[in-house]
Amino acid sequence: MTAMIKAHEIQGVIALENSFNRVGLDHVVLVKVATAGVVTRLMGGSREEVINALSNAWIDGQSLRTYRHAPNTGSRKSWAAGDATSRGVRLALIALKGEMGYPSALTARTWGFYDVLFRGNEFKFQRPYGSYVMENILFKISFPAEFHAQTAVECALQLHPRVKDRLEQIEKIEITTQESAIRIIDKKGPLYNPADRDHCIQYMTAIGLIFGELTAAHYEDSVAADPRIDVLRDKMTCIENPQYSRDYLDPSKRSISNAIQIFFKDGTSTERVEVEYPIGHRRRRKEGIPLLVKKFETNLARRFPAKQQKAVLDVFLDNRKLVGIPVNEFVDMFVI
C-alpha cells in the first residue's frame, strides 16, 4: 500500500505543475520514473541505487503523444502505461545489479532532459510529496470516456430525454468546457478508429444525446456509422469557460466541469445543464464508491467462477484482510 501511494504521488505531484503534453510528450514518462524509483526500493535498493534507476528513467527516449491525437490516434494509448511500467522495472533491476546513474540527467546543459525535451524549463512543484494524489484519485466509473469529457457525457445523458425525439430539429449545441479539454479532445473531421472516438468530446456527447448511454461498444465502427452522430458533431461548438480552467488547476477543487445547452431551429432551447465534478471525483465519493464496487463485481464476473469472485470480494471489502494478505496470496487469487 505504501509503495502504491508513493508511485501515485511521484507521478501525480510532478504532473500538477508540469505539462508534458504541451511539449509533445506522453505523461507515461512519469509512470516509468515512478516505477523505477519505487520498485528499486521495494527490492531492497539503496538510496544511491534508487537515484541511479531514476536518472536512467529520465534519460530514456520518451514516448511522444502521437498516438493520442489525430491523425494518428491509436490503440497504443491502451498499453502505453503498461509498457512504461515494464521499462521502469527493467531499469530498477539493472540498477540493483550495479548499473551507474547520471547526476545531471535533468539539468545538464544541451544534453539533459530539461534542455532536450522540456524547452529549457525546470520542473516546478506545488506541494511536497505526501499522499495528496491517492487521496484525490479519480475513478473512471460511469463511462469509458477520456476524463475531460466525463462530465460532458453526464450532461448529455441528462438532456437525452428532452432531445431524443427532436434530434433533426437541433440547430446548434454549445459545450462549455475547460482549456485542457479543448486542447486534448476537441476534434473536428473524420475519426478513424475507437481510440480516436474515445478522445473526441463531440463524439462522446453525441452518443449520450442519441442513445442515453455510453459503453465501449459505442466506439466501434458499427455504431460510428450511424449518420446522426456526425450530424450532431458538426453542430457542436466548444467554448472555454476561464473559471472552469482555473478550477481545474485549483488544488482544493480539481474540478473537471462541462456544461451543455441545445438550441432548436424554432428558437427554443434546453436549459443549460452543468456538471462540475465527475462521479469518480473525491467530492462525489458517497455516490461513487457503491458504483465502483458494482463495476468491480461486474468485471470479476466476466472472468472468474462464482466461488473465486466471492473470495476476491471478501478480501477487497474487508480492509483488515486486504492490508494483511501476503502479496503472493493476493496474486494467487487472480489465477484461474
UniProtKB/TrEMBL annotation:
| Catalysed reactions, as listed in the record | (2S,3S)-2-methylcitrate = 2-methyl-cis-aconitate + H2O
Q: Do you know which Gene3D superfamilies this protein is assigned to?
A: 2-methylcitrate dehydratase PrpD
How is this protein named in the record? 2-methylcitrate dehydratase
User: Which pathway does UniProt place it in?
Assistant: Organic acid metabolism; propanoate degradation
Similarity comment text for this entry? Belongs to the PrpD family.
Instruction: Name the Gene Ontology biological process terms.
Output: propionate metabolic process, methylcitrate cycle; tricarboxylic acid cycle
Q: What class of enzyme is it?
A: lyase
Domain MmgE/PrpD N-terminal residue range list: 1-126
Q: What residue stretches are annotated with the MmgE/PrpD C-terminal domain?
A: 143-313
Species lineage:
Bacteria, Pseudomonadati, Nitrospirota, Nitrospiria, Nitrospirales
Q: Which Gene Ontology terms cover its molecular function?
A: 2 iron, 2 sulfur cluster binding; 2-methylcitrate dehydratase activity
Q: Which domain of life is it from?
A: Bacteria
* Entries under InterPro entries matching the protein: 2Me_IsoCit_deHydtase_PrpD, MmgE/PrpD_sf, MmgE/PrpD_sf_1, MmgE_PrpD, MmgE_PrpD_C, MmgE_PrpD_N
Is Glycoprotein there in the keyword field?
no
